[in-house]
Amino acid sequence: MSIKNIFSKIKFFMKANSPDILLGVGIAGTVAGTIIACIATSKVPEKKKEFESRVEDIHESVNEKEIVPDNELKKALTKEYVRFGFDLVKLYAPAVIIEGLSIYSIFGSSRILKKRSAIAMAAYATLKRSYDEYRKRVADKFGEDAEKEIRYSIEKDDSVVDENGEPVKVVDKKDLYTHSPYAMIFDETNQAWVKDPTGRKFFLLSVQNQLNNQLQANGYLFLNDVYKALGFPETKAGQIVGWLYRPDDPTYHGDGFVDFGMYTGASQLKRDFINGYEPAIILDFNVDGDILNLTNTLRDTKTIISKYMPDYNK
Description:
Blueprint: H1 3-16, H2 18-65, H3 70-142, H4 144-151, E1 154-161, E2 167-172, E3 184-186, H5 197-218, E4 220-222, H6 223-230, E5 241-244, H7 268-274, E6 281-283, E7 289-290, H8 291-296, H9 301-308
Antiparallel strand pairs: 1-2, 3-6, 4-5, 5-7
Helix pairs in contact: 2-3, 3-4, 5-6
C-alpha cells in the first residue's frame, strides 16, 4: 500500500470521525488546562513573595535616601506591580490558551454534528417526499387497494378463493423496480452529453470504471464525487452518502463497487439507450448509505488500521 493511499484513508477517517475527535480533544484539553492552572496557582505564593520582597527593598531604599520625590516612588512601585502582573499572566497563559482551544473544539464538534444532522434530515425529507409522491401517483392511477398491494409487495392468486369466491392467497412480487431519490437524468442538457450514441454509452462506462478505481484506491467515495464527474450539481445528501470499499471486513455488507444502474431493471428505455435508439437515460446509483455514520461505528483506531490498512506495519 502506497503512502498516498495511507494518507487518503487517514484523511477520510479523520473527516468521518471529526466530531468525536474534536470532542475528545476538547475534554482532554479541559482536563490538561485545569491541571496546568493548578500548577500555576501553586507557584503564585512564590511569585507574590518575590514581589513583596522587591517592594520592601524599594521602601528601604527610600528610607535610606530620606527624601525621594513622590513621582519616582510611584514609578518604581508601578513598575513592580506591572512586573508582578506579567508574572501572573505568564503563569496562567498556557492554561487559558489550552482551555480556550478546548472550548472551541467542543463547540466545533457540536457544530459539525448539527450540520450532519441537518443534511441527514434533508436527505430523509427528500426520500420521504419522493416516496409519498410515488404512492400518490400509484393510488391516483390504480386506486388505494392497488397501491397497498404494490407497497407491501403482494398480489392475489386467483387459484385460491374463499367462501365468497374472492382470491385469498398472497405471494411475493419480485420484479418491482423504482428509482431512488439520488437518481439523475443524463440527457442533452448535460455538458458531457454527445450526439454519438456509442460515445454517450462509453463515456458513462468509462466514468463508472474510473470511479470504481478511485473507490478501491481511497477506500471511500462520496455521491457528490460521482455527480461532479458526470456534470451534475452537487447536493447536501451527496456530502454524506456514498460507497465504502471494505473487502476484508466481514461485518460490512455494502456492494463495494459503483453502479450507475444502466443495466439494472431491464426497462425498455434503458435498452433503447444502450442500443443507441434513446438519447437519454435515468442513472440510479447503488450507494451504500450514510458512509460517515457507517465509519463512525468503528471507533478504535487500531482496529481501523489493522482491518483497512493491513500493510501499514509491514
